[in-house]
Batch of 2 targets.
Target 1
Amino acid sequence: MILICDHKLLIFNLLLIMSVVACEMKILTFTAYEGGKVEIRCPYESEYETHKKYLCRGECKVLDKDIPVESGSAAKDERFSLTDNTTTHNFTIIITDLRTEDQGQYWCAVKTGLGKYDDYTEIYLEIKHGKSENTV
Ligand SMILES: *[C@@H]1O[C@H](CO)[C@@H](O)[C@H](O)[C@H]1NC(C)=O
Ligand SMILES: *[C@@H]1O[C@H](CO)[C@@H](O)[C@H](O)[C@H]1NC(C)=O
């Protein structure tokens, strides 16, 4: 995913406005160790203070969302937790007991109330092997 923003590709992309736009959609990358935990902080606009926040896993298709955790209800998977800080307008997702299969694409999402068009920030989680003494 980060490869889209690779230096050489970026120069190439400068010729194509659409690609530059795609490159500017920043992806936040987090790296953690297998067996450890990761804390993903997602900023949001102050207007969304009272809105529901959630984590979407994978492609996050409109009609087929995989939501491991959302604000206001118990997490489907207890390794996931979500804390919303309405003072700093950040919500924090913590995933514990990380496994290799947790690696991949996620989205920090905020329900906008505009039907299916929620506010998304793309996340890429990278899981590394070893280093069991790791404490995040
Ligand atoms: C929100 O973040 C601020 C600044 O880090 C902190 O002082 C406050 O305790 C947090 N509030 C909650 C509810 O976590
Ligand atoms: C939200 O978290 C980010 C990342 O830690 C931090 O830079 C930012 O200041 C926080 N936002 C607010 C409003 O505190």
Target 2
Amino acid sequence: MTDARSVLAERLAAVRSRIAGACSRAGRAPSDVTLVAVTKTVSAEVAALAVELGAPHLGENRPQELWKKAAAVPGATWHLIGHLQRNKIDRTAPLVALVHSVDSERLLLALDTFGRAAGAPVPVLLEVNCSGEASKGGFDPAAVPALGDALAALAGVSVRGLMTMAAYDANPEATRPTFARLRALRDALRARTGLPLPELSMGMSNDFEVAVEEGATLVRLGTVLFEGLEGDR
Ligand SMILES: *Cc1c(COP(=O)(O)O)cnc(C)c1O
């Protein structure tokens, strides 16, 4: 674990410096970008190391795995970044700071019902399929502006912005139009609803610098931090 600690410390420093470089190219402040360390491939012990090393925002794509790690990792702020089944809302929403992956109107309405009953709106992002890949979830970009009209009526959710995944491309520059598109959609939705919508969750290990240049406020990084550090799961 000592070894994992030093490897992870170095990788976190390298990633932070790459984020700072992208911010500087875009005239942004590095403090405007939150690093979400995606722990889905590593043990709770390795996830805990990330928190100890100053990366408290952790992301999981499967609710059950998030429940397990949330119980085992002290001091983390959790982000759900993968599909949430409606029957898992009750157990998941109380554990997470943000659900990045609201991918249907049905799920949005179910979260609204939960948030109303709980007396506290659930913070969420709407996942948009900007790349058009059939394998990826999320709202059709064409459907997003019309959704805006419904959002104001939802007292049980707090829609904080949008999330997307770019198609993998060996040349990260190829992802730029996907990220620019998400930002444009957010700007249009903001104009239509008057909601501040401050967050753009976009950028993974392969393409986070381009995403930051295009306005990402949350980058979701797994491989670049944790490759080879699986630990015992
Ligand atoms: C796994 C995952 C990531 C992290 O991907 P890497 O390429 O390993 O950085 C980011 N976002 C989502 C939704 C994921 O499922």
